[in-house]
Amino acid sequence: MMIWMQWWSVVVPLRAACSRERSFMWLVIALAGFCVRGDMLGVSSTVRSLGLAPRCYDRLLDFFHSPAVDIEHLTQLWARQVLKLFPVYRFAGRPVLLGDGIKIPKSGRKMPAVKQLHQESDNNTKPEYIMGHSVQVISILVAAGTSFFAVPLGGRIHEGVKFTNRDKRTLPGKFGDLIESLDLGEPFTLVADAYYACGHMAMRLLKCGCHLLSRVRCTAVAFLPPPSVDPTARGRGRPRVYGQKIKLWTLFDSPQQGWETADSPVYGERGVQIRFLSRILLWKPLRGLVQFVLVDHPTRGRLIFVTTDLAMPPIEVIRLYGLRFKIELSFKQAVRVLGTYAYHFWMRQMDKLPRNSGTQYMHRRSDDYRNAVRRKIAAYDRHIQIGLIAQGILQYLAVTCPSLVWASFGSWLRTIRPGIPPSEFVTSTALAHALPEFLADRNSAPSFKIFLRANMDVSSYQAVRLTG
Question: Are 344 and 463 in the same domain?
Answer without folding.
Answer: yes
